[in-house]
Amino acid sequence: MSEKKFTFCRVCEATCGLEVEVEDDRVVGIVPDPQHVVSQGYACVKGTRWASVQHSPDRVTQPLERVGARWVEVSWARALDAIAEKATQLIAQHGPQSFGHFVGSAGGANLLAPMFRGALFAGIGSNRMYGTGTCDTMNKFRVNEDMYGSPMRLAYPDVNRTEFMLIVGANPVVSGNTLYHLPRAQQRLGEIAKRGGRVVFVNPRRVESAAVGEHLFIRPDTDVYFLAAFCNELIRGGVDADRIARHMKNFTALCECVAGWTPERQEEVTGVSAGSLRDLVASHRAADGAALYMATGVNQGRSGTLCFWLLEAINAISGNLDRLGGTLMGEGLFDMARQVNDQPQMRTGYHRHDDLPTVSGQQPAGMLADDIEGGHVTGLIIEASNPLLACSNPDGRLERALEKLELLVCIDLFRNETANLADFILPAPTWLERSELPYALQSFAGCTPTPYITYGPAVVAPPRGVRHEWWIYTRLADAMGVRLFDHRLVSFGAKLAARLSHTRFGRFVDVPDMLVNGMLKKGGVPGTKQMAREHPHGLLLPENRGGNFLGTDRVLTADGKVDLAPEEYRETFLEQVETRFADEIANGDRLKLIGMREVRRMNTSSANSEQLVRDVTNYVHMSSDDAERIGVVDGDPVEVESLYGRIVIPVRVTDEMMPRTIAIPQCWGHARADGLRHAQKHPGVNSNLLAGDGYDNIEKLSGMSHLSGILVEVRRSPRQP
């Protein structure tokens, strides 16, 4: 007999409510939860088709050891003892910094894994941590830290009240939103226009989200000039100098940086007309509440940190920061920003062997191959990621580097391309098998226009051979003799709980439930049992009314003021933007490559879903003007070549693309994924083969890889992909 259970999706940050039908501990159906307090019956296809991932025949459900060319199932005791022995040997030989970790975006949806992962590596004495954050969002954490005092002080648009919203480089209807929580994005953004407001998308592609508003084309990777001119035009029209003086600093320095960027000058490279920019500034100024927001399409450019700095500065000096209808600072269950500031490894630092930063605990993913080749990394744990596809990998450099590691361990659901290089693969639970709260940014930083909390109990049990990440890291610490959390009694308790958790005493030491229950109660809301019983669809929290940030001790800079122009940003801006402006003029007729999301795909796990992936390949999307100039029609194969690599891929001609711009959907390229049989039959092409890695392709302020706005040549190909 089937049973209905309520939880929330963890595929992306929208965390939509779900109603899951379970029979004999198997998921037989997933539909949106119509009673969820925020998503209200909406969920995208990725969440409702998750059962095909959950019960995939390719899923790894027992530890695997690579023996020659074969994969052999082994016991957890064998796997953990062998990993601990080798890791201890490497640390003794090469030092603790030689043992590293790499985490994927799925790790952000797992509240307990970061706690225990961090405790293990802190106990080892290593801060050699990499992640896909330096491929998509780490620029924002750097700016938050320098402007507001903590990487976790994240402002979000007050979508429910704003009258003007400008969205740059984002497509929330398909991708969800990054670093703030907005399920039902199409409806919520559409409501702004319905109440007489204005929503404008600035993007090299006419994205699906633009159906609820207006759209302006912009040349890829020129957003810094658009935002500088917007900021300058805003200042020229007058701002509230008294408010700025009370709560902010370095306003004069900001003015000096942007002074030379007029609407006419930015038009030379962006393609956004001077008149359009002035019109946007006028609407922004006239609105009773306005917000600017940007996401991955801008983050991945060469100036992602400078762009987000200018965008946040615009929100601040216009009087919209910390006010209804503008951008707000959430409060969450407890002050996550302060807690992060108490962890030195989470602060920006330059403790590498070069001058690249570690931001919010992550070193540049684009330097991983170099760091291995240079002998700085000899052992690595990769959690919930497939960096061979997710990161730049020109000419297979990263693959060759990973093959040189003395120890590589992958914690994942599948044997993907990266895991194929590992010594051990350790099977982890899916999000349907974990009891949990939503993303930490939502629960603890409060980045949600409609504040609420929900608790999702596990709806099915994991396969017998699967272990939670907290357990894996704790058992490794036990085997390596590493103290956790720098506390003898806490470390002993965690290790004892891990030893007992899969015995007949396990029901007395449910660590995930105990920790989540403690988090809820610390935040002043009901515990797990009461939440599951009385609030299965979520619990609304008090609205954020604004006025709770500026002029309070929540601004965590040394002097309690928002820094409108941090010194390193000013220097970088003045050093780079003029030179790159000349480059843009010189390369104005060349094609540039951007990425794009598809609604049915979300990284490697979705690629192996028969219910989600039906096409055999992805396509390079280009305008009819470019197709005619190159001499191709829909479906023709073309070669796309950059300075770093070349791929062959079929064409899709569309009026969505700005001329001289092409887009290739992400999350493809599984031709060699013999552990992902469906994905291998629907391989497509990985556009990250066209991106460079290494020092010259890293944005120096945040460690971000340059993955968007890449100069390419396109020609008709004589061969098929």
Tell me what you see in this structure.
The chain is built from 28 helices and 28 strands. It has 3 domains: 49-126 and 333-444 and 455-536, Rossmann fold, CATH 3.40.50; 153-193 and 219-329 and 559-568, 3-Layer(aba) Sandwich (Dimethylsulfoxide Reductase, domain 2); 589-716, Beta Barrel (Barwin-like endoglucanases), CATH 2.40.40.20. Strand 6 (99-103), helix 4 and strand 7 (129-131) form a beta-alpha-beta unit. The model has no long low-confidence stretch (mean pLDDT 95). The strands form 8 sheets. The chain has a 7-stranded mixed β-sheet. The protein has a 6-stranded mixed beta barrel with strand order 21-25-22-24-23-28. Strands 11-10-9-13 form a 4-stranded parallel β-sheet. The protein has 721 residues and is of the alpha/beta class. The longest helix has 20 residues, at 567-586.
What would the keywords be for this entry?
single chain, alpha/beta, Rossmann fold, Dimethylsulfoxide Reductase, domain 2, seven-stranded mixed beta sheet, 28 helices, 28 strands
Strand residues, percent: 15-25%
User: Helicity range of the residues?
Assistant: 25-40%
Largest sheet: 7 strands, mixed
Mean pLDDT: 95
Measured distance between first and last alpha carbons: 48 Å
User: Helix- and strand-based class?
Assistant: alpha/beta
Number of strands: 28
How are the SSEs placed, and which strands pair?
Elements: E1 3-8, E2 17-23, E3 26-32, H1 45-48, H2 51-54, E4 64-67, E5 70-73, H3 76-94, E6 99-103, H4 112-124, E7 129-131, H5 133-136, H6 138-148, E8 155-157, E9 164-168, H7 172-175, H8 185-194, E10 198-202, E11 214-216, H9 223-236, H10 241-247, E12 248-249, H11 251-258, H12 263-270, H13 274-286, E13 290-294, H14 296-299, H15 304-317, E14 327-329, H16 336-341, H17 368-373, E15 379-383, H18 387-390, H19 397-403, E16 407-412, E17 424-427, H20 440-443, E18 452-453, H21 469-480, H22 488-500, H23 511-522, H24 528-534, E19 539-540, E20 562-563, H25 567-586, E21 591-596, H26 603-607, E22 620-622, H27 624-630, E23 637-641, E24 646-653, E25 661-665, H28 677-681, E26 698-699, E27 704-705, E28 710-716
Parallel strand pairs: 6-7, 6-15, 9-10, 9-13, 10-11, 12-20, 15-16, 16-17, 21-25, 22-24
Antiparallel strand pairs: 1-2, 2-3, 4-5, 4-17, 8-14, 18-19, 21-28, 22-25, 23-24, 23-28, 26-27
